[in-house]
Amino acid sequence: MTIYPNATGLSVYFRDITERKWAKQALRASEARFRSTFEQAAVGISHVGLDGRWLRVNQRLCEIVGYSADELLRMTFREVTHPDDLEAGRVNRERLLAGDVKTFAMEKRYRRKDGRTLWVRVTVSLMRDEECGGAPRYFICVVEDIDQQKRAETALRESQERLRERDERLHAALLASSTVTYRWDLRSNALHEDETVGQLIGLPPGKTIRHLDEFLAYVHPEDRAAVAEASARSAREGLDFEMDYRVVSPDGTVRWLADKGKVIRDGEGRPSHITGACTDITERKRTEMALCENRERLQRMIDTAVIGIGFGDSNGRILEVNEAFLKLTGYRREELLSGDMDWHRMMPPKDQDRARRRMQTLARTGVSGPVEAELIRKDGSHVPVLMAAAIMPGQSDEHVVYVMDLTARKRAEDQQRLLVAELNHRVKNTLSVVLAIASQTLRRAPSPEAFNASFVGRLRALAAAHDLLTQSHWQSADLETVISHALQVHAGGDRALTVHGPALALSPRQTLTLSLVLHELATNAAKYGGLSTSAGRVEIRWELSGGERGPQLRLSWTERDGPAVTRPDVEGFGTKLIERSIAYELGGTVDLAFDPEGLRCTIVMPWSGGVHDEGHKYMPVPPLDVPSAP
User: In angstroms, rounded to a whole number, what is the distance separating the alpha carbons of residues 54 and 203?
Assistant: First the structure.
């Protein structure tokens, strides 16, 4: 209830605060639910200060680590963390504090009070103080006991290892069973073997092969001539036989065989026969072909990758690079692979020592990075990159280097910093404008209702300008659209309003200032001028012109066929806002003419393209006589 004195007594105003009461009750209930959830959660939950001290813990966390709540609140989380896991946690917390991630999860070990070590999964997020610019307050940690899961995983790995060993033994046995022996008489071409050769080819049980020509009939047509030629040469020259070829079974199945035979000579030293073995290598051939295909796919991936990829040796020499690397550095392939170029020569002098340390880390650990660095292009320019390297499997003296161009990201980071500065500037300006509008509107309002109508109208005009700028990411706004938004509430139809001028893009500062000015003109016209009657009209025209100080924008507002106009005895806040905003914010001038036929307002201001705002330094609003705080 609010009481105001008036000429005849007192005016009493009542305000319904039911929703406020309900909100307080809902808040208390929400806090109660939070406390209940916190304490009864099936996982450990805690609040941890930025210095590592426990600020709040639930019962489940106490059960996990074996300490009471009072004991934990006198400790830091480091005292229960396994020493080997501290560094990984520190890195993750620094990323969280830096804003690189919103949350992180990691598996780590806790040392319980009873001395036992157990595994937990910790999920951590950061509570920030939004009222203090997002300053970090404390960490929120959710701790899940995964010790049994870890033990089960260990047991599973051991079981899988035993299974792998059994598989290897079984594979060796199966491989041995796929090998058959034979005896080939070089004089008669007779084959002496049991049924195993036929079974290897896929012949029915009991079917045997007795002659070389009979065997050649099952050799794949594309390989038959080569096998026949190699067999004839072995028989003719007494050479050992070794060859991989395909055979086709009666059902059409194709198998690969590895055939290796040794020449046996008679008592006179002449080739007598060959004793050999055939092994089914179909699976091996499939693997080799798949490996070849994978190698080709990998090469295509390297060649078409959008990041630079290079291969080098332990001396820093460049052995191979892909097209993306050539495009990134500007070199030709032969220039990089000539032997005269190495990784160090592509680094700026200031990065030479760091590059050598990264090579030492690579040799010691097998991996290096990712780290941000710079490369020197062939034309001498520097390009920011993200680099990582790894030793090639099975090649201790060779490594692969991945290089990502960070130019776009660095440009985006600069843009982000620019936008943050821009936002800070705009928030300060906007708050100052709102304060000035509120103060001046309240000072001249005859009643609370009048204040509310005037104040809300001006704020809506300001909000509409913000909406227009948001659509272009605060780059610019079309002048005609700004005029349309400012007058759409007041215009009585298309015939009441004439708008004419070239397409122009206003800067954010021009948009905000002109939106408020046009709102004041439209509001005044709707109340007293050309938009207050059905016959009234408003004409808005603008043009660009040259001047002694450069290009200028000239915008004219002309009212016609409305009530007769006279100059007011006292200058109102709207007039003051129009004149001082244009002068102070845009460096322009305003000519207000109160002609009996209708108000005329002419605005002239400097013009420089109107796409980018002027700097990011905080600029206060025009001096509109804002009263000091009591």
Answer: 76
**Which distant-in-sequence residues (6+ apart) come within 8 Å of 342 by Cβ?**
312, 315, 316, 317, 318
Instruction: Look at the pTM and tell me if it is higher than 0.90.
Output: no
Euclidean distance between CA atoms 358 and 353, whole angstroms: 9
In angstroms, rounded to a whole number, what is the distance separating the alpha carbons of residues 619 and 581?
12
Contact predicate 355/307, CB 8 Å: no
- Grade residue 621 by pLDDT with cuts at 50, 70 and 90: very low
Average the pLDDT over each of 181-195, 212-226, 375-389, 442-456 and give the range with the smallest value. Answer: 442-456
Closest CA relative to residue 108, chosen from 83, 137, 72, 73? 83
> 391-431: per-residue pLDDT in tens?
887 777 788 899 999 988 888 888 888 777 766 766 666 66
- Phi and psi at 413, nearest 5°, equal -65, -45
d(CA 606, CA 549): 8
User: In whole angstroms, what is the distance from residue 76 CA to residue 53 CA?
Assistant: 4
CB under 8 Å to 96, separation ≥6 — which residues? Answer: 102, 103, 104, 124, 125, 126, 139
Q: Two tokens at 104?
A: 């992180």
Query: Per residue in 478-510, pLDDT tens?
Result: 999 888 888 876 655 555 788 999 999 998 888
Q: Is 421 exposed, middle or buried (0-12, 13-18, 19+ CB in 10 A)?
A: middle
What is the C-alpha separation between 610 and 433, in angstroms, rounded?
Answer: 21
Question: Alpha-carbon Rg of the chain, whole angstroms?
Answer: 43
Range 364-371, long-range pairs (CB < 8 A, 24+ positions): 366/390, 366/391, 367/391, 370/402
Helix (H) or strand (E) holding 124: strand 117-129
Question: Taking the mean position of all CA atoms in its chain, how far away is CA 433?
Answer: 36
